[in-house]
Amino acid sequence: MHGTLATMMRPTPISSALRILVPVKRTIDYAVKIRVASDGKGVDTNVKHAMNPFDEIAVEEAVRLREKHKEAVSKITAVSAGPAKSADVLRTALAMGADDAIHVEIPDNSLGGPLEPLAVSKILQAVIKKAGEEEEVGLVIMGKQAIDDDASQTGQMLAARLDWPQATFASKLEFLGKLEKGEEVQITREVDGGLGIVKTTLPFVMTTDLRLNEPRYASLPNIMKAKKKPFKKYSLKDLGLEEDAKPRLEVLKVAEPPKREGGAKVEDVDALVGKLKELGRI
Which residue windows are coiled coil (predicted)? Predict the structure, then answer.
């Protein structure tokens, strides 16, 4: 063609099927007795680690959704940010039923402190954007909190950054229509007074509570199959987040709670009242 410049662009693939992203975190195993580290600024991490229990529930819910709606869920992607050992929990997620994994590798002590919820939300936002180059993410299911910091902030921050609706502390998930963008979803969630029901539309961010489901154990055949599933690695530089991931808080001191003193027995109510008066409680 004379005098004409033809430009070819590859459009982002658009699929009516739902791609689910499940963030998972490597934490100290819930059964391990926590001990304060020798420097008094953290806990001893030279112990057994495992996937954060709330994240196990998130993986299980994503897998159950795919089992129930086989044609509607196209892919389950597990993602984790942390040191090389974080790959262990991604392998566990793959063995439970996730299709592929993304590891944002951050070498130990490279940030000068632990990853904070704001930094994790920025990392997940960048991962969702990168993943969208292949296939758009339509649902994020993640644990309501990690049992190491108990922050319970990442899901809310991610929803705000994506400008998506959020449904936190979910104990039941029901799709009222198809698993497609714009379709209505009903979530039963744990609240202080009991249960609350909210409705929203896809895409959205959901955080899981303990009563949502009971995670399955990964079988040996599935553990072997997990070794062959796609596993991508990114660095903070790849995501343009080298500075954004640095901690904004400094831990000054970590200490064990004071040991509880033994109680005392009294003979009757009068003796109890007298003891309380003696201690200045009444």
Answer: none
